[in-house]
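Retry 2 of 3 after timeout on previous attempt. Resubmitting structure tokens to design endpoint.
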């Protein structure tokens, strides 16, 4: 009675159904993989947040010089800001407001420097420099923040042309330590420090950055949704085949069963 489902347009429909359901299942599995990655990220951030703060060079030494193993740990550094060579990270937002991050080299006692993301500045004029109120202190400072590993540069970042040495690099899209280091007159530490605060004071600028979200995100609901689509397609196909088969089993007006199509 069900042989018709393996012939003609029914067979073509079955093949199409299997393709569609396979895609839905694959997307569901992909969402579960993304959720696992997110949970692993959350565990790493939480674990390193519990580690005792340490000078960045001590933290790097304990991690055998691997910046990725230090990322999200609280570290400190002491030095003097080089305000003439700070730059902006464009296209950032804070609680829905557009703006930019201000990144300033902190020159250390040994002549090296470490990039410090000092926080968020609301966007007023895209062509204007950093507001005077957001300028770093001129005296020697102690900086405490969260270590971040070097980021890969964005495709729209300015080309390396020596502009930073003249203090005119202006902006980039990510804290690419290697890229920025080619424009500076001193060596850079292979990580950056981000000033974060889960309850920042918005009265002054730059506004400290919010810590990363540690929620699971929508991946599990999306996975259930994709698996649900696959199940609906399969059940719907089964009901359609069963209904057609039932029609074939009913006698026609001339006493014969309906002709299969």
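Retry 2 succeeded. Sequence:
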């Amino acid at each position: 009675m069900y042989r018709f489902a393996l012939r003609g347009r029914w067979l073509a429909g079955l093949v199409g159904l299997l393709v569609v359901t396979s895609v839905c299942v694959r997307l569901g599995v992909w969402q579960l993989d993304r959720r696992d990655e997110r949970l692993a990220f959350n565990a790493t951030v939480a674990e390193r947040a519990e580690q005792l703060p340490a000078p960045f060079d001590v933290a790097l030494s304990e991690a055998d010089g691997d910046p990725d193993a230090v990322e999200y740990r609280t570290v400190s550094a002491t030095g003097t800001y080089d305000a003439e060579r700070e730059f902006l990270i464009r296209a950032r937002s804070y609680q829905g407001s557009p703006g930019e991050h201000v990144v300033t080299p902190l020159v250390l006692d040994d002549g090296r420097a470490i990039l410090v993301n000092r926080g968020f500045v609301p966007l007023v004029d895209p062509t204007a420099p950093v507001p005077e109120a957001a300028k770093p202190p001129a005296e020697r400072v102690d900086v405490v923040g969260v270590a971040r590993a070097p980021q890969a540069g964005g495709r729209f970042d300015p080309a390396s042309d020596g502009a930073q040495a003249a203090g005119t690099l202006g902006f980039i899209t990510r804290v690419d330590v290697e890229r920025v280091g080619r424009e500076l007159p001193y060596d850079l530490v292979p990580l950056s420090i981000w000033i974060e605060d889960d309850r920042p004071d918005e009265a002054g600028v730059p506004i400290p950055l919010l810590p990363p979200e540690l929620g699971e995100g929508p991946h599990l609901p999306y996975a259930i949704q994709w698996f649900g689509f696959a199940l609906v397609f399969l059940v719907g196909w089964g009901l359609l085949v069963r209904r057609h088969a039932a029609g074939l089993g009913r006698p026609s007006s001339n006493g014969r069963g309906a002709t299969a199509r």
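Attempt log closed. Confidence is low (pLDDT under 50) at residues 160-168.
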